[in-house]
Each structure stands twice: as C-alpha cells, then as structure tokens.
Amino acid sequence: MKKIETYRNKKVLVMGLAKSGANAARLLQQLGAFVTVTDIKPFDQNPAAQALLDEGVRVITGEQPLALLDEDFALMVKNPGIPYDNPFVDKAEKRGIPIITEPELAYEISAAPWVTITGTNGKTTTTTLIAEMLNADRAQGKAYLAGNIGIPASAVAEKVTPADTMVVEMSSFQLAGTTQLHPHIAVLTNIYSAHLDYHKTRANYINAKMKMVANQTADDYFVVNWDRDEWQQLAQRTKAQVVPFSRQNLTHDGAYLEDGTLYFQGTPIIKADDIRIPGAHNIENALAAIAAAKLAGQADNAAIAHVLKTFPGVKHRMQYVETWQGRKIYNDSKATNIVSTEVALRSFPGPVVLIGGGLDRGFTFEKLIPLLKDHVHTMVVYGQTKQLMADVAKKAGITDLHIVDTLDDAVPVALRESRPGDVVILSPAAASWDQFHTFEERGDRFIADVNQFIKENPA
Fold first, then answer.
1. Which pathway is recorded for this entry (predicted)?
2. CB atoms < 10 A from the CB of 397, how many?
C-alpha cells in the first residue's frame, strides 16, 4: 500500500456504508483523516456503524441531516448507488465539496497496476476470466479480483504489491465518482441503455463509463468491443493504444473470431466449441479477456486456453443450478436489464420456462417479444414489473402465463409447469430492489427455492 498524506488531518465524510463505505472509512482513518460516517439505516439495525463507532469513527445514523454539510469537510466519499440528485449530495456539490467513490480512494493507495473492466453486460464474467488467466501460470505476484464484483477495491488495494495486478470491475455508478483513476489496461465489453433512472440520459451513462479512460496515456491500452460503430467511435476518447476485439469483424490487431477459432493478433488461442460456458456473448467475453491477459504480459496461450476450457461461469450469470426430472435449471439473477435477458434467451434455443420481474424503472419490455416468441413457451412473472411483463408475454402469444407476487411464489409454479427437456431460467430483465437488497440475494433465494422444491418433489 502506498503511504499517502493526502487525507492526513482532513475532515472526510463517508456517505452510505455497506461493504465499500465501511472499508473506505477504516482506510481513511488509517490515512490520518478525521472521518464522519452518515448512513440512513438506524443505529440499532446497523452493525457496520456499531463496529465503526467502537473503532473510534464518528457515526451519524438514521438520517442524513443537511446541517452536517455546514462543517468544513474536505471530501465526501459517496456510496455509488446514491444518485447525484439526492438532496444531501446535491447540497454537497453546491458547497463545492469534492465527491468521489471508494474505488478512486483504492486507486490512490494501490501499489499494483490496474486492469479495469466496465460495460453494460459481461463485466463480471470478463473480469473473472482475466484474473483466472493472469493467475494460471504466473511466476511472480498474483492477480486480485476487486470492485463491483463484490469485493471492495480499497480492501484489496491495502495488501497488493507492485508484483501483483488488480483486476477491477467497475460500474457506471463507481466510475462517475473518479478523477485520478488511471488503469494500465481498460476494457469496455459493450454499452447499451441501462441505469437511465440514475444517469437520466444515455449520454450521461456513456460519459460515466468513459471516465475509465480519461487519464490513460499512450503507454496504456483500451480494449474495446469493435462490433458496433458507436463503440468504435468511443475509442476516439482515449489517448491509449486501442486494441479491438470482435466476434463479427476480423480485427487482426486485436482479438477476433475467425472460422470457429479465437485469435489474438494472428495467433490461434482456442476453438470456440472448446469454451465451456455457452452463448455467443461469452465468445465476446472470452475475446476481451484474451486481449487483456495478453497485454498484461502474464499469461501464455496454453494457460489462457486451459482457463476457457475449464471455467464454469460466475454465480448468478446463467449459472447452472440443477437438473430435475429432465429440466435444466439456471440462475441468471444478474440479468438486471432487458439486454441481459435477451442474451440469456439467445443462449438457449428452447424450449424455455422464463421467470421474470423486479423493480419497475419506468420502461416496457417490448424488445423481448421476438425472443419470447422463438424461445419461450411458459412465463412466470412477479414483482413490480409483473403486469408489464405479462403484457409482452401476451403480445408474444404465450398462453401459459402465470402472474404471482414474489419470487418464492414463482419458482414452484415454473417448475410444475415445465416439461422434460425444458430449460427453466430466472432471468428477470429488471433490478432486484423491489424485493431484495442485491441481485446476489435474489439469486441465492432462487437457488434455495429450487432446492426446497426438489427436496419436496424428488425424481
């Protein structure tokens, strides 16, 4: 860990706890800052705040009083999920208080180079593949996963050395709060429309994503999906060396698919049919990971191929759960938007029983209709968006439609309505926050419900 003096004797406000906020508070205290934490959850229901108070951190819980900003704070470290139009954040901005997110703090103290991954879809799979590849045949140091993948970057940055590599998944929420972030290798998997309730416009969403490359130089690399003109144009925003990857174009200066084989700069790496995880989107994820691993200089072709042949996929992303009476069951809870569910449906030709629903963000699901027609024979919908999803199911001609209230209700209905040979998949096309704190919690509940059903209904 770099010993920086930036925050010594400075008053710093940490807004919002969870894992990243608690780690940021502890790190700032270690760096000599006078730390105040404010979190909306009441103190008696807030173990993280209780622990920090025991460690000498000032905590204010149950509210976020605007008067607190009258104190002379030099910095706010904001929980990424809190939007910038929040009254407390808005007032801080108007007061001129710099606002960052926890990964920015982690970058400042990291002694290891960063490989940073963002995009609308494929982030977690690509991030995990890169780390696996960099560790497969590594002589010195270690590649560490961190960031939006569920591991606070600040906790990892405290322990890494210059011989290590930090492989950091970053969301648009996290990237919006960065100013100094400077990854040696930046990877953009793709960009579709998402999180517009937070960012308000697609342009704002893209600008947040592209903050990842803002500080790169000609000594760095920007690995970018080359399958859409829009994404190619984003490459003009960086000073880094652009390394494309593509499933559709022969980008011989990068990673590409040709005649069923994945290549990097003209060298064959692996046949597409040998990659363990299914789906055309995972070809793209593999190409992105190959490019990043090769540019990092830590992985040879045999090690990369071995990872792709054996990697089973990440939890909650088209995760195989179980086979019950000839039905294969998959957990795709990380499908928090329409595009992710489209990807899932394309990966399974059918027949599919689809469980969908979740937080209502004010959009409809019309884009799913063609895929529902081609792949799905039964739908079970729940949550805030259940009626919206039911409407598109009817338009797609799905007559075996079931509308329930909760995921716990949906699972047994979906399994009872399925037939031998079906794929039963939770791919919600919506965020989890109407009924769960995170998509991980939603996916874990789905798995528990499946296991309970199978226990009560053995083969």
1. Cell wall biogenesis; peptidoglycan biosynthesis
2. 11
Give the residue from 187, 227, 244, 193 showing the smallest Cα distance to 210.
187
For tokens 């940490």, the residue is: 14
- Separation between Cα atoms, residue 160 and residue 380, nearest integer Å: 46
List CB contacts of 408: < 8 A, sequence separation 6 or more: 445, 449
In contact, 41 and 17? CB cutoff 8 Å:
yes
217 known member of a binding site: no
Q: Compute the residue count for the chain.
A: 459
pLDDT band at 427 (very low <50, low <70, confident <90, very high): very high
Residue 121 is assigned to a ligand binding site: yes
Residue 280 near residue 247 (C-beta atoms within 8 A) = yes
* pLDDT tens-place string over residues 241-253: 999 999 998 888 9
- Tokens 């934490």 identify what position? 37
Find out whether 19 is annotated in a ligand binding site. Answer: no
| Residue 397: partners with Cβ closer than 8 Å, 6 or more residues away | 373
Task: Label residue 367 left, alpha or beta by phi (over 0 means left) and psi (-120 to 50 means alpha).
Answer: alpha
Exposure letters 40-62 (e unless 16+ CB within 10 A, then b)? eeeeeebebbeebeeeebebebe
- Report whether 46 belongs to an annotated binding site: no
pLDDT, one tens digit per residue, over 35-78 is: 999 999 999 999 999 999 999 999 999 999 999 999 999 999 99
Strand 255-258 relative to strand 261-264, pairing: antiparallel
Was 200 annotated as part of a binding site?
no
Fold of the 103-310 domain = UDP-N-acetylmuramoyl-L-alanine:D-glutamate ligase (3.40.1190)
* CATH 3.40.1190.10 domain span(s) along the chain: 103-310
| CATH 3.90.190.20-classified regions of the chain | 319-456
* CA 152/CA 162 separation, integer angstroms: 19
Which two tokens mark 298?
């830590």
The response to whether 119 counts as a known ligand-binding position is: yes
Q: How many helices (H) and strands (E) does the chain have?
A: 17, 20
| Domain 11-99: assigned CATH number | 3.40.50.720
Whether 125 has a binding-site annotation, put simply, is: yes
Tens-digit pLDDT profile for residues 103-114: 999 999 999 999
HSE at residue 5, side-chain half, CA atoms within 13 A, is 0
Q: Which fold has domain 319-456?
A: Protein-Tyrosine Phosphatase; Chain A (3.90.190)
